[in-house]
Design brief:
It comes from bioreactor metagenome. This protein is mainly alpha-helical and 284 residues long. The chain contains 13 helices and no strands.
Length: 284
């Protein structure tokens, strides 16, 4: 049981119960209301045992909403429940939730992460992290697109090297992945080279989805996570994202189609992907 993909269905079930979408008969007598901790624990245990409604919830909120309704309350992207981080508070995270080939992940990039890593010190095209009003990130812009690309490429490099997400957030001067890779391999490549490795990995992941019939533009942010309708109170009062516009700008930085997310032939050639795939096929 994953804390994200278990907690999300429990919250969905409580919302639906209080809204009258789920009945007490459907919950097998559980009084699913906020604050009823014993009912929440019992529901999780039924998910573990796949008993009653727990059998449906164990497969996530997308399946649950298909069975019972309450689709607008189901916080999922491509069937994946996102982390418990509010995308309205971090437009960079909102892009990664949707544009990531394995959507809904909170570990690919976010504003706080980029600000701590100093990627511009190893990558010539990564924008410097600057102190700025967060409201500026609510307006789709090219700088934010390049920042999210840099986050994604570096995260792919870290994952490919077997690195640690928390070490990554310490920044390139504290955790010197480029130096470590050169020392381990005997190479002498710079950060731009390694960031291109990350870009190649991300592009191959995008191609994998497309090959298997998964359209990149089928991943969308739930309306609530985009601030639609906007909150009427609190620090995020009135905040609304224009996430799909920002995702299109992000795709453009990779050389992918801005509307479909499909990589262009030119982008593939620049990354030598056809050449490398041909070599792999020949070797096998």
């Amino acid at each position: 049981m994953d804390s994200i993909s278990a907690g999300n269905p429990v919250a969905w079930a409580i919302e639906c119960y209080e809204a009258g979408i789920l009945t007490k008969e459907q919950t097998d007598g559980l009084e699913l209301t906020w604050g009823n901790a014993s009912a929440m624990i019992e529901l999780v245990e039924r998910m573990i045992r796949r008993e009653g409604i727990g059998d449906i919830l164990a497969d996530g909120v997308k399946r649950a909403a298909a069975c019972y309704g309450g689709t607008e309350r189901a916080m999922q992207i491509g069937g994946q429940e996102p982390g418990m981080h509010d995308s309205r508070n971090d437009p960079q995270l909102a892009v990664h939730f949707v544009a990531e080939p394995a959507p809904g992940k909170h570990t690919i990039g976010m504003g706080l992460q980029y600000g701590a890593m100093s990627l511009c010190d190893i990558c010539s095209w990564a924008p410097p992290a600057k102190i700025h009003p967060k409201s500026e990130d609510l307006i789709p812009n090219d700088t934010l697109a390049w920042i999210t690309k840099a986050n994604a490429c570096y995260s792919m490099l870290v994952d490919g090297a077997g690195g640690c997400y928390y070490a990554e957030m310490m920044g390139v001067h504290m955790w010197r992945l480029v130096d470590y890779l050169n020392a381990a391999s005997g190479w002498d490549y710079n950060g731009d080279h390694y960031m291109q490795v990350g870009e190649r990995i991300q592009t191959l992941r995008q191609l994998f989805n497309i090959k298997h019939g998964v359209a990149p533009n089928s991943f969308v942010l739930p309306a609530r996570m985009e601030g639609k309708p906007p909150l009427k109170n609190g620090p995020l009062k009135g905040v609304q994202l224009r996430n799909q516009e920002q995702v299109s700008l992000y795709w453009r930085t990779f050389g992918w189609d801005e509307q479909t997310g499909i990589p262009s032939e030119e982008a593939l050639q620049n990354l030598r992907i056809p050449e490398l795939l041909a070599e792999e096929q020949y070797d096998s």
